[in-house]
Write a structure and sequence with these properties.
With 186 residues, the chain is α+β, with helices and mostly antiparallel strands. It has one domain. Helices cover 44% and strands 21% of the residues. It contains 4 helices and 5 strands; from the N terminus they run E-H-E-H-E-E-H-H-E. The protein has a 5-stranded antiparallel β-sheet with strand order 1-3-4-5-2. Helix 1 packs across helix 4. It is globular, with a radius of gyration of 17 Å. Bound molecules: heme C. The site of heme C has 24 residues, from helix 1, helix 3 and strand 5.
Length: 186
């Protein structure tokens, strides 16, 4: 049975387990997310400008997992992206991640600014402890080219070919598309 100790970032100081200083893990997580997000966004933008969304799909499809592995290796963490409605089956959330994603959607619905929706936790499995950090990813206008309800016909065809079980559609601006997840051994 897995046990979770969730610490709200804001309430951290008042939670007993926070006697442990988690700021190094938090900083490392933020840095990894920034590197991943910036590289991917840069390549996505360049591909959109060069060849439009169809060409950019190949970039997302090949480069998103590659950049995630590269950043993970470089920084000694495990970084990825996940969602309640996934496109890539490898991005499936586990039980805890699913709970956090649902909580993020509820926080968003309650009016919280998506740019600040995040959470950290110490995840305990038997003798092993893992630090986990998740940060919400809001949907912007450019995302609708490939994650909106209506996409161009060639995009639709490419998505069907690459992701026959794609669920990552129907998003609107401001929705949470998913979250970054960073795991670090403790
Ligand atoms: C050119 C098409 C395209 C655009 C534009 C695009 N995506 Fe994606 N997105 C993809 C593809 C393809 C994947 C699967 C890649 C992978 O393995 O992570 C994906 C996967 C994701 C995932 C990982 C979860 C999952 O569903 O597998 C997130 C989160 C995500 N996109 C968010 C966004 C956000 C936020 C934007 C806008 C800033 C965006 N995407 C724009 C094509 C696109």
């Amino acid at each position: 049975m897995k046990r979770f100790i969730a610490l709200s970032l804001l309430a951290m100081a008042s939670v007993p387990v926070a006697a442990q200083d988690l700021s190094p893990q938090l900083q490392a997580s933020r840095a990894a997310i920034q590197q991943f997000a910036q590289s991917l966004q840069g390549e996505l933008q360049a591909a959109m400008q060069a060849g439009g969304p169809v060409q950019a799909i190949e970039i997302c499809s090949d480069r998103a997992p590659e950049i995630a592995s590269q950043v993970s290796r470089e920084r000694g963490v495990e970084i990825g992206r996940t969602s309640l409605k996934i496109r890539n089956p490898n991005n499936q959330p586990d039980v805890w991640e699913r709970q956090v994603l649902e909580e993020f959607d509820a926080r968003r619905a309650a009016g919280e600014n998506p740019a600040h929706i995040e959470t950290q936790a110490i995840y305990i499995r038997g003798e092993e402890k893992e630090y986990r950090f998740m940060k919400a990813i809001p949907t912007g206008e450019v995302c609708l080219n490939c994650h909106g309800a209506q996409v161009a016909a060639p995009v639709e065809d490419a998505l069907k070919r690459l992701y026959p079980r794609d669920a990552a559609r129907g998003y609107e601006i401001g929705d949470l598309r998913g979250a970054f997840i960073v795991r670090q051994p403790m």
